[in-house]
Amino acid sequence: MSETPASLADNSVFRSLFEAYPDSLLVCDRHGSVVLSNPSAAALLGYADGELIGMSIEALVPDSIRGRHAAYREAYGKNPKPRPMGMQMDLVARRKDGSEVMVEIALSPIREHSMPLVVAAIRDIGAYPRVKQALQRARYSEHLAQLGRLAVDARDPQVVLDHVPTIAAQALQVEGAMVWLVEGDGQTCRLISGVGLAPGEEFGAHVATTPNTALGFVLSQGGAVVVADYRSEQRFAVPQFYLDAGLVSGLAVPLSDRGRHIGVLAVRSRQSMRFGADELHFLESLSNLLATSLQRAQSEEALNHAQRLESVGQLTGGIAHDFNNLLTVIQGTLQVLEELPALADEPYAQQLVAAAARASKRGAELTGKLLAFSRRQVLLPSDVDVNALLQSLADMLRRTLDQHIRIEVDAPPCPPCLADAGQLESALLNIAINARDAMPAGGVLRFNAEPCEALPVGVHGEVDINPASDAPLVAISITDTGTGMADDVRERAFEPFFTTKEAGRGTGLGLSTVYGFVKQSKGGIAIDSTVGRGTTVTLYIPRATASGATQNPSAADDAIAPGLRVLLVEDDADVRAVLETFLDTLRCEVTSCSNGEQALLALQADAGFELLLTDIALGAGMRGTELAARAQARLPALGVLLMSGFSAELLEADRDSPPAWELLRKPCSRGELARAIASVVNT
């Protein structure tokens, strides 16, 4: 006896499997009427359970193809067999509210029963794990960039504190988020801001920091704490109102300021085991941004204007590290998605890739903004009135420095220099800060500017100006009457992170950033110092051209002659493949090597290479800088472009490498690579 759809539904095993199946399932008869549907189908299409029964399948397809769908269905009925739909088109399902969702559909006839039925298995392609993960990480990056912009622009730390819980809750899609700060006595935490507070919580409430409390446990651990289920938590006492509010899982990370825990950022959910590695990394990055913002605010309260500039340099390193890690994850995910054959022709998947790329770009822009005091910032040179700049700087310093320090300006009429005005002022302030610290009992701080026809021999930095050539400059000197420097200190003064100040008073990046700025500006820097008699730091900045035209290095001609012979050295196979593709599209002739030893074998005089493009870190073998030096010893005319994903390596290479070597930060776009190559080969 044949079974009817009702008898099929009465089979308990079949019904259980059918209803539990994660994909949306519709069983249709020969007329295209839905005779069975599972809860997943109702949820996907926006209907209540059972509401789909009896509907025509044509009601679930978009208006644009509804007229043709019946013909497709009839053709399938003449030759039913398991197969996917839409091999030559994108499939879209129409929801009850009229919206559309991109789907995959597989059809399977039921052959075991006399009544001809067809099972349609429908899947939302946005449910693919890789696509969902990419979208999730893009959302996290978007919210981090949002907070980063706010942290940079907001002057009031309370504005940042008020926004963090909202950003955390929206990004993680959880019910509650809050920020607690440790009070001055270190014994309690105070609830500063939050969203989705449980009954029994209120702003300003205090909780003890003893390890048996939730907040105290986080502070005692000194790292992230994940709670899979508050109902079974044994490490600390769970407040009863957590359970009464239906809270099940939680994630909390400490806020740290120079190794000292100053608070806790926590999120909570009504779902069990809600927080994984991606959520943890996001919240840690969020807490780092918040802690950095609070640290900056505290520094601004304690320090004058010059000291605040120094504190910004101290803050940026950790933030850049977090963002670079996040960008690496996002861009790695994008590469995986781009290479998946199943998604190559899926517009919705490509839309997600584009969204993640935009979020990655915003993260990169934010990192660049936070690293405005680093040595690899983009400069915007213009004609700078040196006399006006020094007078303005002196006026500001008179209001902010100790009154025991007398400030003098000796700047007769001087031609304008060509530099980034904001970065030049920042460099002079960095030097003035060091001078102030060298005069604890007071003294004289003197600024001087005068024209200089060429860079003096022996100026530190081996800059891009030939001392023997006619290269007009402006020499800007800052002299103090302080303690001076010993010879060994003077020799290391430009090293990143080298400082003679006590802990908490400096980062060791002040003169390093000044040196980086001067080198990028095609100038030089010199130090003259005697112990007990004071120090003079002189910046040699190129003089502005007679035309007074503003130059923008970011607009440099990136044209590359076809057939450029490039030796590419990269130990990571995936990165090497991407760079090979970039170089191919730039019409270069590429020879690739995975290490420096292979590259040296390929570097024969008759090979005709014009450019060496090498990563700095090349695994266990020689470093890219060593390879470049040996390569140029063989082929002096060979151009060198160094790459690295680590800012510390770029800092070191920028300080020690010849000026003709160009540096490129990874990850990079094809356009950035082209501009860097053009800068080398067109010089």
How many whole angstroms does the radius of gyration measure?
32 Å
Q: Mean pLDDT, nearest integer?
A: 79
| Distance N to C terminus | 88 Å
- What fold name stands as the CATH topology of the largest domain? Beta-Lactamase
- Provide a count of the helices: 20
Main sheet?
A: 6 strands, antiparallel
- CATH architecture annotation name of the largest domain: 2-Layer Sandwich
Percent helix: 40-55%
CATH domain class name of the largest domain: Alpha Beta
User: Spans of 5+ residues with little confidence (pLDDT < 50)?
Assistant: 302-314, 372-376, 460-470, 503-509, 547-558
Number of folding domains? 4
Strand content: 15-25%
Corresponding CATH superfamily of the largest domain: GAF domain
Number of strands: 24
Shape: globular
Main structural class: alpha+beta
Description:
By secondary structure, the chain is of the alpha+beta class. Helices cover 41% and strands 21% of the residues. The chain folds into four domains: 121 residues, Beta-Lactamase, CATH 3.30.450.20; 241 residues, 2-Layer Sandwich (Beta-Lactamase), CATH 3.30.450.40; 161 residues, Histidine kinase-like ATPase, C-terminal domain (Heat Shock Protein 90); 126 residues, Response regulator (Rossmann fold), CATH 3.40.50.2300. Strands 1, 2, 3, 4, 5 and 6 form a six-stranded antiparallel sheet that branches. It has a six-stranded antiparallel sheet with strand order 9-8-7-12-11-10, sandwiched between helices. Helix 10 crosses helix 13. The longest helix has 35 residues.
